[in-house]
Amino acid sequence: KSPPKPSLITAVKAMMCPKRCMCQNLSPSFTILCTKTGLLFVPPSIDRRTAELRLMDNFITTLRRKDFANMTNLIHLTLSRNTISQIMPYAFFDLKGLHALHLDSNRLTCINEDHFKGLINLRHLILSNNQLNFISPGSLDDFIETLEDLDLSYNNLVNIPWDTIGKLSNVNTVSLDHNLIEFVPEGIFSNLHKLARLDMTSNKLKKIPPDPLFSRIPVYAKSKGSPLSSLVLSFGGNPLHCNCELVWLRRLTREDDLETCASPPELMGKYFWSIKEQEFVCEPPMITHRTPKLVVMEGQSVSLKCKAVGDPDPYVRWISPEGKLVSNTSRTISYENGTLDILTTTLTEKGTFTCIASNAAGESTASVELVVNPFPHLANSTNCDKDAESGPSDILISAKSSFPNETKAQQEKKVVVAEISKHFIDRN
Ligand SMILES: *[C@@H]1O[C@H](CO)[C@@H](O)[C@H](O)[C@H]1NC(C)=O
Ligand SMILES: *[C@@H]1O[C@H](CO)[C@@H](O)[C@H](O)[C@H]1NC(C)=O
Ligand SMILES: *[C@@H]1O[C@H](CO)[C@@H](O)[C@H](O)[C@H]1NC(C)=O
Ligand SMILES: *[C@@H]1O[C@H](CO)[C@@H](O)[C@H](O)[C@H]1NC(C)=O
Ligand SMILES: *[C@@H]1O[C@H](CO)[C@@H](O)[C@H](O)[C@H]1NC(C)=O
């Protein structure tokens, strides 16, 4: 009944090569090559000591947890050009030594938190030509400091987990071309000291913000002729809005290509490099409409509006009659387009509100007067509201001070009660 000796198992296993595959045993490195062999699954008979496994051009649809179990020596894994649409959680968990993972030309639609767990030595991650529309921010965490090459090109990505990209401290090449990206946050590349190629060709970018990184190292628009230790930034094929915010890009060392402007109308279709720097202009905001004086009853909701035009689109903030910047609260919502919704007005909001429209070219302000009439029947409950508002902090103070001999647990209980009642009041 006793199991066979382990050494015997190993010896038998070492002999095995999956059907129709080619195996090379250049000890100590095993290479297995199974291309165009009609595989529907990763063969179970793969030697666990394999260093290089190439399974491209097959019909694998799912990567299972057991497929790569115990393959701690695997350095290179190629699964390109299959039909993989599903990766089971932790499918790569044992691949502690893996340097390169090629998953290009498959049918992946999303990358979740647990898909790439365990790949603590990964340097090259190739995910181009899939149908990706989502990448979880935590999914790259295990190799955030080792990754050198990230290829997400030719997918359907609108959003990129930018904060994660910004932490790839060892990354050299980032390929995001041929996606649907509309937005790049400013300064996101500033810590990527080794970045040498950033490809954002053919996306939906109207603008590309300058980055502290771009001012530290020379930036080129094409790789031809660019010196080492420079950054090559490719951005053709985007609907660029050529205003003053893109002047920095226009100042790059050019290598002629087909970049054009999509707007403003007078620059539409023009060749980016042919436009003079002075023609990349912005318009300061101008407030074209605003709400006239409004009279409301206390407790009513009210919407104050300021409409501003400019290039780039201005964003609008509001200053309350008390002189404070109005932020989003449970009672007020300040939209960037210039609408300020006050859901229940109070007497403190009586007075002159000021809207400030700003953009890269300047600022413009206007005033809107709000008259709030007290609601007679509410007089009593208004007093109640006032009591309630100052209530929680009173309780908090008494919990801390008035009974010095109380146990800590008793005090904490009171604080909790105070917190709960505060939340309750906030919500109401
Ligand atoms: C991996 O190793 C464990 C422990 O040695 C073993 O129980 C398991 O069967 C192995 N799995 C595979 C797929 O080889
Ligand atoms: C307030 O919330 C709205 C809608 O969620 C959002 O568009 C706006 O940017 C927020 N304003 C501020 C100042 O955060
Ligand atoms: C601004 O956006 C809000 C919410 O999307 C909308 O209700 C409001 O009418 C808009 N205001 C203007 C001036 O377009
Ligand atoms: C509140 O209501 C009570 C009774 O309904 C009344 O006597 C009192 O004067 C009211 N207080 C105020 C401030 O109106
Ligand atoms: C704290 O002291 C007060 C007055 O000295 C006393 O009434 C109360 O029982 C004491 N509480 C505790 C928890 O010892």
UniProtKB/TrEMBL annotation:
UniProt-annotated location(s):
Cell membrane; Cell projection, Dendrite; Postsynaptic cell membrane; Presynaptic cell membrane
Q: Where is the Ig-like domain?
A: 285-371
Per the record's keyword annotation, is Transmembrane included, yes or no? yes
Membrane-related topology note = Single-pass type I membrane protein
- For this UniProt record, give its keywords in alphabetical order, as a comma-separated list: Cell adhesion, Cell membrane, Cell projection, Disulfide bond, Glycoprotein, Immunoglobulin domain, Leucine-rich repeat, Membrane, Postsynaptic cell membrane, Repeat, Signal, Synapse, Transmembrane, Transmembrane helix
Quote the cellular component terms of the Gene Ontology held in the record.
cell surface; dendrite; postsynaptic membrane; presynaptic active zone membrane
| Top-level lineage group | Eukaryota
GO process annotations (BP): cell adhesion
Tell me, in a sentence or two, what this protein's role is: Cell adhesion molecule that mediates homophilic cell-cell adhesion in a Ca(2+)-independent manner. Promotes neurite outgrowth in hippocampal neurons.
Q: Which family does it belong to?
A: Belongs to the LRFN family.
Q: How does it assemble?
A: Can form heteromeric complexes with LRFN1, LRFN2, LRFN4 and LRFN5. Able to form homomeric complexes across cell junctions, between adjacent cells. Does not interact with DLG4.
Know the name of this protein? Answer: Leucine-rich repeat and fibronectin type-III domain-containing protein 3
Tell me the organism.
Gopherus evgoodei
